[in-house]
Design a protein that fits this description.
The complex is a heterotrimer of chains A (486), B (314) and C (350). With 486 residues, chain A is an alpha/beta fold. Helices cover 34% and strands 26% of the residues of chain A. Chain A contains 17 helices and 20 strands. In chain A, strands 6-7-8-3-9-10 form a six-stranded mixed β-sheet, sandwiched between helices. In chain A, helix 4 packs across helix 5 and helix 12 crosses helix 13. The longest helix of chain A has 16 residues. Chain A starts with a strand and ends in a 6-residue tail after the last helix. Chain B has 314 residues and is mostly helical. The longest helix of chain B is centred in the middle third of the chain and has 27 residues. By secondary structure, chain C is an all-alpha fold. Chain C has a domain of 237 residues. Chain C has 13 helices and no strands. In chain C, helix 3 packs across helix 11 and helix 5 packs antiparallel against helix 10. Classes of the chains: A alpha/beta (486), B mainly alpha (314), C mainly alpha (350). At the B-C interface, helix 4, helix 10, helix 12 and helix 13 of B face helix 6, helix 11 and helix 13 of C.
Chain lengths: 486, 314, 350
């Protein structure tokens, strides 16, 4: 089957998530779709799977135009999606999962048979009667793939499939994909892992900020791919070397696991006022590292010391008391309370506890902060009505005056240039007053401009750590892609 | 306890079976229909009213089914289309339907009306002991047996039943697989509601003959409790209904000797329900029962994960 | 403007319920004008009736106050009926066992009732926080357990000598009666308790840090946790406070209305309060007139039955239609609003 996309465009309000995207995948071709988070990959996948409808553009399957108004239609036309987290029904058995949603003519007999045939063909090890909750993610993927094959998928779209699986399982998955392609399957492999795309795909289309940045055959020079993914832009100004204060925090041999994400044997030391940037692809461990340091994920191993005191056993509330502060990437869900006004948020963040709230004082304090942080809103505004940039300013405004340690996930993601610059000037003044900052980012320019030190995460480990003056943007890009250099 | 007593238990539990199985079906699909108590009363009233005026028991039963089916539709519509909390709509409807049944049923109070006729099944009724209990009953009772078995078989042993479980468990995933989640939810909610209505009508036309206000006090809540106690599994739910019937008979027999206890016993389903929930929520129990397919499912009985949460594709 | 649209839809809902109510009146061949007159007369026609209306208003206010607290924490406290009963039982216990002056006894009854209701509410809370039992089912279950308890007490240990009936316990001694205004059945103390409770609840929620944290927990427990709020503890506290306030309704019912314990002491007021609070869109201030309106209808029902031969459930039907219309219509309004908002959402807005 050949799949062709022409000038696909999708807007959300004023944001253009997909801007005239065109690509084609032939039968037996493995086509990579590469791009950082926010580049537009997931929107395109949702359009192809029928979850959302495009505003403009055409989709043709073997010459037939498709509307794709619902997942039903996608399924009926042989487009199969393997989601990042397989949409599996946990309490049900493998064979039940196989059957749910399949055409009514099929019964258990057909399911059992198909399951064993396909498993044998691709070397899957799936016990049909076992509950799906007992399967590892890799096995759940196998289940989904087997199912899509059984239902006659001729186009397979894999959405970031290697995020949460082991390397052995990944080898298996790649072998399966190659076999499928040999049989004529058209495959779209959506990812941001450079090395894997290089290894598996025939061609790659790179998305950046909603548009196609490049479309080339593979293999291709890594530097070229990196530059197309992240953009070259202006070379960062040389950082003035800053003198950091005394050693504050020591993370030694730390490991932590959450679903998804992990960190393994991580060592990190943080000084007063130091800014450390965590670089790496999505899912490489930065988020888990930040969350473990905040206290949301327990350390399975290792120690975490504040000066000389061991604090790895403390929970988030205790660490808040010590002066830690966490700024999530998902501002609305994890950081702000929809429905409460800015004044109320300010009142919530105040720690001197008189029982009664003096709303006049709270309002004037809120107004002060709105001004100081240039938040485009009123004291009565609620988070839902603020733009992303203003939500971030609000989160910063709610912080205690000078926290000890600031843990930030993607501080400027989704922010316009002006807000991003403002946020950083504020953060820099904080660090000058002694706040240590650890932040994760996928913007190479941001990392090299503002960090004192950069730590590169890959598959849960820190594969390199260096002063920012020691590496160029290109080298950083390579490291992120897992290509060890330096 | 002789066969005659058991036969009475079976007969008296029948309306509850309809209601509880009906609600089980609805909740398996992920919708919680809290209007049970009120809609059962309303169905009991309309069922009796229609039967009384037309002289036909069958029409009365159908009227009851239509009544509660409609109420259930309002719950589904309010939750899915109007995005109002299912619980809120259900509670309001309970109150409204209860009062409505009293208001409109005024002229039928304590009037004698037609009732379901007994119909013993030939051959089967001669089986020693069980024959008297199970097969010397009326058609409604036989239908209740069929319903229990049919719903069990449908939910756990058919393709469509699998889809039903899927929409209550993880509607997003079901939707991604092309299953029309909300259409099915409407269907199963109304279907379940219809059975609830059958239970209500079965009261006034059979078990507790006639109509008066507060006629079947709290049976809706009891049905709700039994659904939970029964782990959303038709067989266990049926067991819960018969157990409750037995408790009632025991309470009746205790009346002269231990009046205090006798009055209190009928509330037993509720602490039982709570204890069941606590017990089953314990992780230790859950992981243990995961290992055995059929029996494990019978024992485990966890709520459909998406119960009470309306689903919207956008 | 959103508020304008909301008001329009609200008015529309009221109109619909009015039309439906009139339809029912027509169905029952009720004289419209007389019915409307009796609505006011039945509740406020004589001093006696005004007093009785107020005494229905009291438990409705208290139960609604209880629900306002728990709803703000994101909880469906359907168990409010049981909490009223628990409060009544506790107050009755005090009334029966404690000797002393009226002031002492009444004070202890109030405290005891609050504690009784609070404990019953805490039970629901613990079942939810520790046992993973949804508070709706836990609440319903405990409602029935409370009913069982009260029935047991009334026909068992606390029954009148020789008469084990569900008519009620021995009436309380005179010191345990809430004082009433001459000749009327209305107790100013009960009214004071009701208003003070509602005012306290509103104050708590809108003017204290505790209330703010409770509301944050109700709207977004995850984010609330990030602000340093121990959400589990706050949920439990919501149940304690809510249960306690509901318990006070039991106190006034037992001490000011029935003067003894009867199985139907909660009078279904807890459940009715759920409707009131839904109609009031969870706003404490609106509860006051709406609860009075519901009390008015309850009183009018008597007169409608007495003088016009209408069924006493008419009032309930009208209440039900009203709440159903408003809730459904406002739901629709919100859906439309959401749709318009997301269509025009602009990331660089404001």
């Amino acid at each position: 089957m050949s799949l062709e996309l022409r000038a696909i465009t999708k807007r959300f309000g004023s944001v253009v998530a997909n801007d005239t995207i065109s690509l084609s995948v032939g039968s037996g071709e493995i086509h990579g779709l590469l791009g950082e988070n926010g580049a537009g990959k997931s929107t395109l996948v949702k359009i192809l799977s029928g979850f959302i409808t495009r505003d403009q553009g055409e989709i043709e399957l073997d010459g037939t135009k498709l509307h794709l108004l619902s997942p039903n239609e996608a399924v009926a036309n042989g487009i199969g999606i393997l989601h990042q987290e397989p949409l599996v029904f946990l309490p049900f058995s493998v064979v039940d999962n196989f059957l749910i949603g399949s055409p009514k003519e099929y019964g258990y007999a057909e399911a059992y048979e198909a399951l064993s045939t396909i498993s044998e063909q691709f070397g899957f090890d799936l016990n049909p009667d076992v509950s799906a909750s007992n399967l590892s993610i890799g096995e759940r993927q196998q289940l989904e793939i087997a199912r899509l094959l059984w239902l006659g998928a001729r186009v397979l779209i894999l959405d970031e499939p290697t995020t949460a699986i082991s390397s052995t399982q990944r080898e298996k998955l790649f072998a399966t994909i190659r076999d499928l392609a040999d049989d004529g399957m058209s495959v779209i492999f959506v990812s941001h892992k450079l090395e894997e795309v290089q290894e598996l795909c025939d061609r790659v289309t790179i998305l950046r900020e909603g548009k196609i940045s490049a479309s080339v055959d593979l293999p291709s020079p890594v530097e070229y791919l990196v530059s197309k993914m992240f953009g070259t832009g202006v070379l960062p100004k040389t950082r003035i070397a800053r003198v950091n204060g005394s050693s504050l925090l020591e993370l030694a041999n730390a490991s932590a696991f959450e679903q998804p994400g992990q960190i393994i044997d991580v060592n990190l030391s943080v000084s007063r006022g130091q800014i450390i940037g965590l670089a790496g692809l999505e899912g490489a461990g930065q988020r888990t590292l930040l969350r473990a340091m905040a206290g949301f994920v327990p350390f399975a191993e290792g120690s975490f010391r504040l000066q000389s005191a061991e604090i790895s056993e403390l929970d988030y509330l205790d660490r808040l008391g010590l002066g830690f502060y966490y700024l999530p990437a998902d501002r609305q869900r994890e950081g702000l309370v929809n429905g409460l006004s800015i004044t109320e948020h300010v009142a919530l963040s105040v720690t001197d506890q008189s029982k009664v709230i003096n709303w006049n004082i709270a309002r004037s304090e809120a107004a002060k902060r709105i001004e100081k942080f240039s938040i485009k809103g009123t004291v009565e505004s609620t988070p839902e009505s603020l733009s992303g940039g203003n939500q971030q300013r609000l989160l910063l405004a709610l912080m205690p005056e000078t926290p000890l340690l600031l843990l930030m996930e993607h501080p400027t993601r989704g922010l316009d240039i002006e807000s991003a610059a403002w946020v950083w000037s504020y953060l820099l003044t904080l660090s000058e007053s002694g706040t240590s900052i650890i932040f994760s980012s996928s913007d190479l320019e941001e990392l090299t401009t503002y960090s004192d030190q950069i730590a590169v995460c890959f598959s849960g480990r820190i594969i390199d750590q260096f002063d920012v003056s020691e590496a160029t943007v290109e080298e950083l890009g390579l490291l992120i892609g897992g290509v060890h250099q330096r | 306890m002789n066969a005659a007593t058991f036969a009475i238990i079976v007969a008296s539990a029948t309306p509850l079976i309809f209601a509880a199985i009906g609600e089980t079906i609805t909740e398996k699909a992920g919708v919680v229909n809290l209007s049970l108590d009120g809609s059962m009363l309303l169905s009991a009233m309309t069922g009796f009213a229609i039967a009384y005026t037309t002289g036909s028991v069958e029409l009365g039963l159908l009227a009851g089914m239509a009544t509660s089916g409609f109420v259930a539709f309002v719950v589904a519509f309010g939750g899915i289309r109007l995005r109002v909390n299912q619980i809120a709509v259900g509670l309001i409807l309970t109150y409204f339907a209860t009062k409505l049944s009293a208001l409109l049923g005024g002229e039928f109070v304590r009037k004698p009306g037609p009732s379901v006729q007994k119909m013993s099944l030939p051959v089967l009724e001669d089986i020693p002991f069980f024959g008297e209990i199970l097969f010397q009953q009326n058609p409604l009772v036989y239908f209740s047996f069929l319903l229990v078995i049919a719903s069990f078989w449908w939910i756990f042993h058919t393709r469509r039943g699998l889809d039903l479980q899927a929409i209550g468990e993880r509607p997003e995933a079901a939707f991604a697989r092309g299953i029309p989640v909300n259409t099915l939810r409407y269907f199963y909610t109304v279907l379940g509601g219809a059975f609830v209505g059958l239970g209500g009508a079965a009261f006034s036309l059979d078990a507790k003959m006639g109509w008066s206000e507060g006629h079947i006090a709290n049976y809706g809540w009891i049905a709700l409790a039994i659904v939970i106690f029964g782990g959303w599994h038709p067989l266990r739910v049926a067991f819960g209904c018969y157990l409750f019937g037995a408790i009632q008979i025991v309470a009746l027999k205790m009346q002269p000797t231990l009046p205090d206890l006798a009055q209190v016993l009928p509330i037993a389903p509720f602490p039982l329900m709570i204890l069941t929930l606590v017990f089953l929520n314990m992780r230790v129990v859950q992981s243990f029962t995961m290992r055995f397919k059929g029996i494990g499912r019978l024992i485990r009985g966890t709520a459909p994960s998406a119960l009470g949460e309306s689903f919207w594709p956008d | 403007m959103n508020s304008l649209q909301q008001t329009k839809y609200f008015a529309g809902a009221i109109t619909i319920s009015l039309v439906v109510s009139i339809f029912f009146l027509w169905l029952l061949e009720a004289p419209l004008v007389d019915t409307a007159k009796l609505l006011v007369e039945g509740a406020f026609g004589t001093n006696q009736r005004i007093g009785d209306t107020f005494m229905i208003w009291v438990p409705l206010l208290l139960a609604s106050a209880s629900l306002v607290v728990t709803f703000s924490a994101g909880l469906w406290n359907i168990g409010v009926e049981g909490q009223i009963v628990a409060g009544a039982v506790a107050a009755s216990f005090v009334a029966r066992e404690v000797q002393g002056s009226t002031t002492v006894i009444l004070t202890l009854m109030v405290i005891g009732g609050f504690v009784g209701g609070a404990l019953w509410g805490l039970l629901v809370g613990v079942l939810r926080v520790r046992g993973g039992v949804n508070e709706i089912f836990g609440g319903i279950g405990l409602n029935f357990v409370a009913t069982g308890l009260i029935v047991y007490l009334v026909i068992g240990p606390w029954s009148r000598d020789g008469v084990a009936s569900t008519g009620g316990t021995e009436p309380f001694g005179p010191q345990a009666w809430f004082p009433t205004i001459d000749g009327l059945r209305v107790s100013p103390l009960a009214l004071i308790i009701a208003f003070v409770s509602l005012a306290s609840v509103m104050f708590l929620l809108s003017k204290t840090h505790f209330g703010l944290r409770l509301r944050a927990t109700g709207k977004n427990p995850l984010a609330a946790n990030r602000f340093g709020i121990a959400t589990s503890r706050y949920l439990l506290m919501a149940f304690i406070i809510g249960g306690g306030v509901a318990g006070l309704a039991g106190v006034t019912q037992a001490g000011a209305v029935y003067h003894r314990l009867v199985p139907s002491i909660s009078g279904g007021y807890g459940f009715l309060a759920i409707l009131i609070v839904l109609l009031a869109r969870f706003r404490g201030l609106w509860v006051i007139p709406i609860a009075l309106f519901f009390a008015t209808i309850a009183m009018a029902s008597f007169q409608w039955q007495l003088r016009l031969g209408l069924h006493s459930a008419l009032g309930g039907v009208i209440q039900g239609v009203l709440v159903l219309s408003v809730v459904l219509v406002m739901g629709y309004q919100e859906v439309r609003q959401q749709r318009e908002q997301s269509n025009s959402r602009d990331d660089a807005a404001l």
